[in-house]
Amino acid sequence: QVQLVESGGGLVQTGGSLRLSCAASGRTLSNYNMIWYRQAPGKEREFVATITSSGSTYYADSVKGRFTISRHNANNTLYLQMDSLIPEDTAVYYCKSSDDVWGQGAQVTVSS
Asked: Which of 45, 64, 54 is nearest to 98 (CA)?
């Protein structure tokens, strides 16, 4: 069974850091483009970052320079390192593979 399981969300103060993980089972992550999305309360889901199967990375302007997407092939896990967090980053964060398998979501709350 193909599954993406997220972890690492939580509550942090403005300026703090968190690292989200997205562990894959039933598939090899490096064979897919992987994407992080987020959805804030009352807003539409939005793109955050992506890493292609070849390792290229792309970011939304709102997180560029603060967030880093990476992939650990041996652990078959996707990461999102989030630094210099601001309250506007508060959202549920989802990982997704390019064939539309989604993680369950991880809540990130940044207090002012």
From this structure: 54
Residue type, 88: E
Q: What is the 3-state secondary structure (H, E, C) of 67-99?
A: EEEEEECCCCEEEEEECCCCHHHCEEEEEEECC
The CA radius of gyration of the chain, in Å to the nearest whole number, is: 13
Interior CA angle at 90 toward 21 and 9, to 5°? Answer: 25
Report the side by side order of strands in the sheet with 91-97.
Answer: 10-13, 106-111, 91-97, 34-39, 46-51, 57-59
Q: Residue 69: name the closest of 45, 46, 52, 91 by CA.
A: 52
Residues 32-66: tens digit of each pLDDT: 999 999 999 999 999 999 999 999 999 999 999 99
Which stretches within the chain are classed as H helix?
none
Q: Cα 54 to the chain's mean position, in Å?
A: 18
